[in-house]
Amino acid sequence: MKLPVRRLAAAIALLVLLPLAALPARSAEEPEAVYAKYHRAAMAGNLEDMLAYGPAQRRAEMRGLSAAHKEAALKMARYMMPRAFTLERKAMNPKGRATLFVSGPWEGARNRMETIYGIVNMVLENGEWKVDEANWSYDKPPILATPKPAAPPAAADKAVPKVAGKGAPVVGSMSSATPGRTLGTAKEPCVYKPVMTAVDVENCK
What we know:
The chain has helices spanning 8-11, 31-44, 47-52, 56-61, 67-80, 153-159, 198-203; strands at residues 85-93, 97-107, 113-125, 128-137, 191-192.
């Protein structure tokens, strides 16, 4: 059973146009960071921020709509999304597009908490990532059943420092200069939430 498709145009197609001059620069942000802000704006009921993270064409389509329509769009967006989500996989396209595969707990028509999966399409616009569309379903995307791509050989070589002289290479490091490669307990998985603690933010770096 699939949930209805939630294109950004359908989820917030009833929002108003914001002045672009008031928006902060986000050119350095990764697509998942931009989607996390869009998601948090939806959970907080902030229509203006939701619109800020959508493409200019969507904003142009949303002019002159009534307050009742905007309120209906907000309720739809909040109902269709999980309260928190986990980034499962990211696929980058050199032509200025990216796809995020996410999951999260959702209590909908079945009246029980279940995991749903989202496919979020992002588009690069004027150097900033925007949420183009987001589809949610009970069905797990096939790509999540495949192993994650291995790290490039060059990155792998840098992650394994070698000891001068005799002896085998040393795996891991006790230095904080190589985050993610230190010996010890692995970080918790990255989970984006409407309200994130310092630990949550650190896990998503």
